[in-house]
């Protein structure tokens, strides 16, 4: 794991099924969830995050995290980004597999490419939830 900001990290994990990359904002400090929700609800930063999350999803990443069943109190249920407002953490992860390339110099390029996929998401999180309230 490499910490990019308060509770914002990128990491690689080896398991029996191969290599997995993950970018995450999790286990937030007090006040970070409120900062995240304000940024999501804001038109500029919220639309930016929505587009970034969709782009990451299109590249094959699973988007998960600690989710509430409904948008939090104070936000309308029909908010255009209600799905993001429900997050109390945000994780984008994708398996990279366990093919032959994993044991060659090509592995470095694949890992760097996957890390680049997560750059916009992680930088958004660093800008909007980095400091503790």
Question: Helices and strands in order, then pairings?
Answer:
Blueprint: E1 2-5, E2 8-15, E3 18-25, H1 32-41, H2 43-58, E4 62-64, H3 82-85, E5 90-97, H4 106-129
Antiparallel strand pairs: 1-2, 2-3, 3-5, 4-5
Helix pairs in contact: 1-2, 2-4
Description:
The chain has 133 residues and is of the alpha+beta class. It has four helices and five strands; from the N terminus they run βββααβαβα. It has a five-stranded antiparallel sheet, covered by helices on one side. A hairpin with a 2-residue loop joins strand 1 and strand 2. The radius of gyration is 16 Å and the shape is elongated. The chain starts with a strand and ends with a helix.
Concise structural overview:
With 133 residues, this protein is an alpha+beta fold.
Question: Average pLDDT, to the nearest integer?
Answer: 93
Q: Tell me the structural class.
A: alpha+beta
Strand order of the largest sheet: 1-2-3-5-4
Estimated helix fraction: 40-55%
Q: How big a fraction of the residues is strand?
A: 15-25%
Count the strands? 5
Q: Main sheet?
A: 5 strands, antiparallel
| Topology pattern, helix = H, strand = E | EEEHHEHEH
The gross shape turns out to be elongated
Q: What integer value in Å does the Rg equal?
A: 16 Å
The N- and C-terminal alpha carbons lie at a distance of 24 Å
Give the number of helices.
Answer: 4
Low-confidence spans: none
């Amino acid at each position: 794991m490499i910490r990019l900001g308060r509770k914002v990290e990128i990491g690689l994990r080896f398991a029996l099924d191969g290599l997995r990359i993950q970018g995450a904002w999790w286990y937030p400090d007090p006040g970070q969830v409120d900062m995240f929700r304000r940024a999501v609800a804001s038109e500029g930063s919220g639309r930016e995050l929505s587009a970034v999350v969709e782009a990451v999803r299109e590249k094959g990443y699973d988007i998960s995290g600690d989710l509430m069943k409904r948008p939090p109190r104070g936000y309308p249920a029909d908010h255009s980004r209600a799905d993001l407002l429900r997050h109390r953490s945000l994780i984008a992860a994708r398996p990279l597999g366990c093919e032959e390339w994993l044991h060659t110099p090509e592995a470095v390029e694949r890992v760097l490419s996957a890390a680049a996929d997560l750059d916009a998401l992680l930088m958004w999180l660093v800008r909007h939830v980095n400091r503790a309230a």
